[in-house]
């Protein structure tokens, strides 16, 4: 059932942020965004023969606001990466339309492996997840416009939200794992490398 994984993972994330994260402004804003997204996704807004998920527009604006806090020069590379991810997502969807048999491998794996790999190779840190989502959303817009051909289409279907949920959770998990490994490495180095005694020697002979 389309949207099952999105709602399942969304409520889990909302619960974790609300009850387990420290009381910070990040937790408050994040919880509100997740809850609003869960409420807005089923709502649609129609213009001509295009129907937009309200949640789609809401999340895109939130991602723009998050990434737009950087200086203009620092936005060039994330913008380039988002365009690459959008092109990769569009290419994968076009290939699936020509040869849907590849979905037998696993529909989510086939549709996500290339965009996620591009994000992992070209970006790091929390901004990777945001740029990945922006790129996939841009790609979804291109896919639906190309498929419409004058027919009504929905931009931001529940099936697409499943893909967004999986890709975002995977990207964030990789970021957290990387941070944990780096912290463990620092602690290990501190334990096994004794402090330098050069300062003590200088003091004795002073």
Automatic annotation (TrEMBL):
It comes from the Bacteria. Pfam families: YphA. The chain crosses the membrane at residues 6-21, 28-45, 51-68, 75-96, 102-123, 130-147, 159-181. Keywords: Membrane, Transmembrane, Transmembrane helix. This is Uncharacterized protein. It comes from Alkalicoccobacillus plakortidis.
